[in-house]
Amino acid sequence: MPSSLLRTIALFSLVVSAYAPAFASEQPAAPELTAEERKFFETHIRPLLVKRCVDCHGPDEQSSNLRLDLRASAIERGGDSGPAIEPGKPDHSLLMEAVRWESFEMPPEEQLPAEEIALLERWIKMGAPWPADDPEQLATLQDGPISEEDKAYWAFQTPVRAEVPETDSDWPKQPVDHFILRKLNEAKLQPSKSADKRTLARRLYFDVIGLPPSQAEIEEFVQDTRPDAYERLVDKLLASPQYGEHIARHWLDLVRYAESDGYRQDAYRPTAWRYRDYVIRAMNEDKPYDEFVLEQIAGDEYAPEDPDAITATGFLRHGVYEYNQRDIRTHWQEIVNEMTDVTGDVFLGLGMGCARCHNHKFDPILQEDYFALQAFLAPVFWDDQRPIATPEEIAEYEKQYAVWEEKTADIRKEIEEIEKPHLDKLAKAQTEMFPADIQVMMRKPVAERKPLEHQLAELAYLQVIDRMKRFKSSSLKGETAERYKELQEELKKFASLKPKSLPTGMTVRDVSETAPKVTLKNRREAREVEPHYLTVLEEDQPQIIPPQQGETTGRRLTLAKWLTRPDHPLTARVMVNRIWQQHFGVGLVESASDFGTLGTPPSHPELLDWLAVDFVENGWSMKRIHRHLLLSATYRQSSLLDDNANAAQAMMVDPQNRLLWRMSSERLNADQIRDSILAATGELRTHLGGSSESPDGTRRSIYTKVIRNSQHPFFTAFDAPRGTSSTSERNVTVTSTQALLLMNGEWMLKRAEKLTKATLEGIPASTSDKNLERVLNKLYGSVLSRKPRADERAALIGYIRSTLDQQPNGKQDADLLAWDEMPGTGQTAMNLNQASTSPRPFTDQPVLAGMNEFTIEATVLSRSMYPDASVRTIASRWNNNNKNPGWSLGVTSARSSYKPRNLILQLIGQTASGNVEYEVVPSNIHLDLDTPYYVAVSFKLDDPSEAGITFYAKKLNSDEPMQIAHAKHRVLRGMFDPDTPLVIGGRYGQSGHRWDGLIDQVRISGSRLSQPELQLTQKQPGPTTVVDWSFESADSRLADQTGLGPELTIGTPGADHPLYGPVSDVAHTLLNCNEFIYVD
């Protein structure tokens, strides 16, 4: 039987789990065989097994831990998936399922001949008679599923501090360099020269604080000639608050940090950020790693009165959650499984997930080990109401709250009596959606629930609470409604007595002092598993002593203390390897979260152990390890091939640079690219901590919202993880999407605009060498933290001048537009077309900003519709992003869901609930093509009734009466973005949604005009007119006729500086260049 058969048996256990009990030294005696049975086995079965199986499953090799030359292995103990043969039951034997090709086709190359399959089936039906094993052969069978060879694997041995290799070279600067140099010498390679000071400074800034150095900071370091200048810079950056922000990002990737639930609803988690801030503080304070681990796994047991330790338990809360899952049992098991998996990934550097269904196929991790690890975590109970505060703060709050409670007791009691029947009805309806057994648990008194029942009932009850929140006072009627309103007003009078709520977060505690049972189930049995450590690491049973304070099992604290034992084989190794990875791109163990046999062995095993021991012996200080590596000669090497005399040989011997004969260039990650762009434009906001903000803003990336199912396109493009699973290393892809985002993305175009404006501020319009050199020095300093080289300066000065020479000479803004006569009025109108190169008039002055009501009027003629659902825009103050505030007046196109040629108002702002929404308000007035119209919309922002918005439309070449339509709206405020210009015939920063036709007589008033006040009857501007662009004066067509408002500009908003165009091109190019996005 070929070895592939046994691989199938191993694979089959992915579907059918089988627990393999330890093999006792004394085997049960084989049953006595009849002469006929013995003859059948020796004549037909043993030769078949020897022919097909024993090469890979015999004394020399035991694939999948299965031997088929011994009865004790094949029938009694089995391999990774359990016994392959069940005597008397061929249909229950994994061996038969495999050779029949019922589940897996084995052997995969060709099915066994039918006669051999028949022989195996007949033999198993007979009871699988097999003579007793030879004692000498039996002695070669390993005792139990974990062998001495398994235990001897390098990662499972306690790290031992190796002697630092001696060398005659003066190259090493730190002990790690001696280990690196020895390996290089053995490979007949040599290290590269040190990088120059500018390169080192940039590398250090990005590696330590994640942000680019300013030009002044680089110059300061370059000019510092003190012998310890580099060491001083390292210490300065390690002491920076930005260090914690950057290093925390690596940890947040590992622990699958996100701020939404995942699944379909993907609800926002408003307090998740507290864990993020805890990690940042821990890194900045250099919290010892053992304490860092203790707090995250068992902070509530380890330091129950420490707010930081309580916050740290959020580590166990970052898994996904499906808010409307009725199968509560399955969902809770998925949650606990995920906690188990990520604990193994993060702290042990072992993939535990495979052992959930069967013994791990490649690593000595038993299925029982998986559930034993889970048993430490199983008592976890979600606690979102626990105050994150000191005992003194809690006591003071409770004291003040008691006063408020006493004063408002009668009022609240009456309110509760009114609400109760309605809330009970909602709760009952939601409870009845769950399976019957869950309903029983939910209705049980808490004191009578078993631990698992309480966990399941409270998980289900989250959905009940959500349903009860839907109660609205508007559902109350008559006198009850009036009384309820009166009571609420009475309650408000005591608001000054009610203390401000203490902060809460996503934390955990144990469900009780008694742990729920953890059951290992397979098709043979179901049995309870107690907590114990990985068998391959330690066979002694843990001594679990519950803490004296609080209702808790002490299990998680026991696990955390075991993980942080100084002699633990994995914990310190895994963490120092992660720190190495942060600075060198790849860990000494390349597979940073897989130290098992499928992972890569360490490139420098003695160095890894030396670092692990040094880490523990020096108080588990993470900053100390960072500092050691940053000060090393290995880290300071140049990444350039020209800086290594033996580069050609090195590229042949070690093309992946695992021996570190040079430094490797690295692309900045998504966070660093975004933050660097904002730093270059001067927009980056660097204050520490607090709730998260939109990625469209200017806050540092670590403080932006991480929404699993709606990741910002910039982060998606540049390989940021979504927080759905532990990520030990970010992918680094190169895609067209990245180039498109950087070249054409709206956010990027706005950044280039900001950078250009900042660069040209205070700069004369002169094209002299001196002036243009000044511009380029300023621009290069902002983006690349240096001055341009002579060749760069000459080429760019030439580009700027040639671009300016090609621009229309002496043309006024109005001359850049086409003008035509508006039919029906005979007046001059702008003649616009939809081409992306067609200029659009705009003003970046704050027209209508902050006004609660306004009226927009214009005379228009539309020549065409878009073939899709795009909108022909008359006027707007919006960038077409449905999450950014703004408004737009326009006409729909061919495939619009609001029907073609419909006059509409698009609004983006806050509704009554405070949520930002995008809303289309249709007038249902349809404009004919090639027909001149007067159109207007009057709007009162805080009036959502039909009187709030009124549309007007009148054909100018017909006697037909004015068409009037009223419409409700939901957006009530927050509609104006001060950075978004008002554009005529288009939208800010957009090449689409453009008007194709004539526009004239644009008038905007700061009030809701009535019909008699409209310009169709009132030709002169009224008292509330803000701007009146009539386009009639040949000398100043784009001027406001009131003399009070802004003049329209043609081109890019804010680009009135003569040098803006070509300098903007240069700015945008620099933000895209490799020198900006990569670090040497």
How would you characterize the overall build of this protein?
The structure is a single chain. Helix content is 38%, strand content 10%. It contains 35 helices and 21 strands. Strands 6, 7, 9, 14, 15, 16, 18 and 19 form an eight-stranded antiparallel sheet that branches. The chain has a seven-stranded antiparallel sheet with strand order 13-12-11-10-17-8-20, with no helix packed on it. It has a two-stranded antiparallel ribbon with strand order 1-2. Helix 9 (197-208) runs parallel beside helix 11 and helix 31 (746-760) crosses helix 34 (1060-1070). The two termini are 55 Å apart. The model is unreliable at 1-26 (pLDDT under 50).
In a few lines, what is going on in this structure?
With 1080 residues, the chain is α+β, with helices and mostly antiparallel strands. 38% of the residues lie in helices and 10% in strands.
The oligomeric state of the chains shown is single chain
Computed over alpha carbons, the radius of gyration is 37 Å
The top level CATH class name of the largest domain = Mainly Beta
Mean pLDDT: 90
Query: Any guess at the CATH architecture of the largest domain?
Result: Sandwich
**General form:** globular
Helix share, percent = 25-40%
Low-pLDDT ranges? 1-26
What is the total tally of β strands?
21
- Measure the end-to-end span: 55 Å
CATH topology of the largest domain: Jelly Rolls
**In DSSP terms, counting alpha (H) and pi (I) runs of 4 or more, how many helices?**
35
Strand content: 5-15%
How many domains is the backbone divided into?
A: 6
For the biggest sheet, the summary is:
8 strands, antiparallel
Structural class: alpha+beta
